[in-house]
Write a structure and sequence with these properties.
With 214 residues, the protein is mainly alpha-helical. 56% of the residues lie in helices and 12% in strands. A three-stranded antiparallel beta sheet has the order 1-2-3. α3 runs parallel beside α6 and α5 crosses α6. The longest helix is centred in the middle third of the chain and has 37 residues. The mean pLDDT is 91.
Amino acid sequence: MKNIYKNYGIVIENEKLLDIALTHSSFANEHNLESYERLEYLGDATLEIVCSEYLYKNTTLEEGQMSRLRSLYVCENALYEYSKDINLSKYIKLGNGINQANKTIIADVFEATMAVIYLEKGLDGVRTIFNNLIVPYIERKEDFLMDYKTLLQESVQTVRKSVTYNLIDESGPAHHKTFKVEVVIDGLVYGVGIGLSKKEAEQNAAKEAYMKRA
């Protein structure tokens, strides 16, 4: 188990702590053990620090834009994808009532293992994993958050602004149409999206608006 992150430059020596990080509450309750939940809490905070530092040092984005980009690369979907790269799910200990770890459990365990690395090797250890495993996703501009309409709506609700989507163009044959949609926030166009359906175009417009808002 200690070699989970070996290909990314880290070997975990504290196998006892790593074992806790890989233990779901269902298994812990059956065997009177400690689960990963406390480590998950610490790992979540540690990842946010390292990601925030990376974005601050490597971009010229404003505060709001950095926050939104950080949420993209430390969200559940993203952590799940990173976990697949190291085949993390095969190490997770589950109780009898759970046949397979779901996306949430796997993402939580990833955070817990980051906490183990932090406690053993400090932020430098977490940075090593971040730079070798996660930064390539950032450089490729991988998109982990699919529902940008919801994210945009939630972000403007805090300031009580209205969001509307307008179809501004529709072209192509009936079996292969292209739609162009603009998203308007309180009378101002914040984004334009193109897609093979209205829904896809709206999502692309919402993504542009969400990433643009500071």
